[in-house]
């Protein structure tokens, strides 16, 4: 019998799919401690959700995603992952929803796959993992992906991946070898995903697509902490108008994934408001109960806590 759960929706919870892993080689070999959990949906995963009181996970494929796939396999690989994810959701629709994987190096095909995944498979948006073959997503050629997301009314979740090789060599070596997390969750992940978001704003994307919705994990990859300074700096004489702070507050939502800090959450609430923050754990890299225990103890009115725990996700993702 399924244990009672509260109205808690965790929106950055990862899985791995075998048909994609075969194309990624060593990059698809996660830590042994989490490998089995990434491939598990219906036993240990749901048991952890029940123990933590989590009603639903919004599933997304483990990094790296499709952004490193060669063009000749990318479309089929993404379709296979999205179909497999839809089958998992169909088996446990009360417990799971999901974000699609897109063949971003083929933007028109990616836009078509996003439409198919949303309209035919019921997925709630898409997740993009880091740079696309070394390119940031602000380049004009990626506009079809964002135009499709805006038209469909679904968000694009910008998730970190490993920094570019040249960046690693110049900025992070030799500490990328001596301190494994230098290019990952300890520093490099947040810098890269945050830079991705900044570039999207500066490119004028949101002037073209004012209703586009972007999700960032890890409490906004550091941007809320620096938002006032960034907004002032980008508005100085000599800069093109960007309305940086206004755009970030209007078009971005952030999640708590892997960032269980009272002070960081307080900053995020003050800068963005509770309506822009969604609960996430970053399972299986962090135990579901750890995220719930932290947020249960965070001092916030019950009405606001309910928004972050589930209400904001329901509205943004159109969840039943």
From TrEMBL:
Give one Pfam hit by family name: Amidohydro_2
One GO biological process term: secondary metabolic process
One GO term of the cellular component aspect?
A: cytosol
What are the protein's GO molecular function terms?
A: carboxy-lyase activity; hydrolase activity
User: Per its UniProt record, what InterPro entries does this chain match?
Assistant: ACMSD, Amidohydro-rel, Metal_Hydrolase
Supply the SUPFAM superfamilies for this chain.
Metallo-dependent hydrolases
Q: Which protein, by its recorded name, is this?
A: Amidohydrolase
The record lists the lineage as: Bacteria, Pseudomonadati, Pseudomonadota, Alphaproteobacteria, Rhodobacterales
């Amino acid at each position: 019998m399924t244990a009672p759960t509260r109205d808690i929706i965790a929106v950055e919870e990862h899985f791995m799919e075998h048909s994609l892993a075969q194309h990624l080689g060593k990059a698809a070999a996660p830590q042994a401690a989490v490998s089995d959990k990434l491939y598990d949906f219906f036993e240990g995963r749901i048991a952890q959700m029940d123990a933590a009181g989590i009603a639903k996970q919004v599933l997304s494929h483990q990094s790296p995603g499709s952004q490193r796939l060669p063009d000749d396999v990318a479309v089929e690989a993404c379709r296979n992952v999205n179909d497999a994810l839809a089958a998992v959701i169909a088996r446990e629709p009360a417990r799971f929803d999901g974000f699609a994987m897109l063949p971003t190096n083929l933007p028109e095909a990616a836009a078509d796959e996003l439409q198919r995944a949303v309209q035919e498979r019921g997925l709630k948006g898409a997740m993009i993992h880091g740079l696309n073959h070394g390119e940031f997503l602000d380049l004009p050629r990626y506009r079809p992906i964002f135009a499709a997301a805006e038209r469909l009314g679904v968000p694009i979740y910008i998730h970190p991946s490993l920094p570019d090789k040249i960046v690693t060599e110049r900025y992070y070596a030799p500490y990328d070898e001596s301190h494994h997390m230098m290019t990952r969750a300890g520093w490099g992940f947040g810098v890269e995903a945050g830079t991705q978001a900044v570039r999207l704003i500066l490119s004028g994307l949101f002037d073209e697509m004012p209703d586009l919705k972007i999700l960032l994990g890890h409490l906004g990859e550091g941007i809320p902490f620096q938002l006032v300074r960034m907004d002032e700096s980008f508005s100085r004489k000599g800069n093109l108008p960007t309305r940086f702070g206004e755009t970030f507050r209007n078009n971005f939502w952030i999640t708590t994934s892997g960032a269980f800090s009272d002070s960081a959450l307080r900053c995020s609430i003050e800068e963005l408001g509770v309506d822009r923050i969604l609960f996430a754990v970053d399972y299986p890299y962090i135990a579901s109960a750890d995220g719930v225990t932290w947020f249960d103890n965070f001092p916030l009115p019950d009405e606001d806590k309910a928004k972050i725990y589930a209400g904001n996700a329901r509205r943004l993702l159109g969840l039943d």
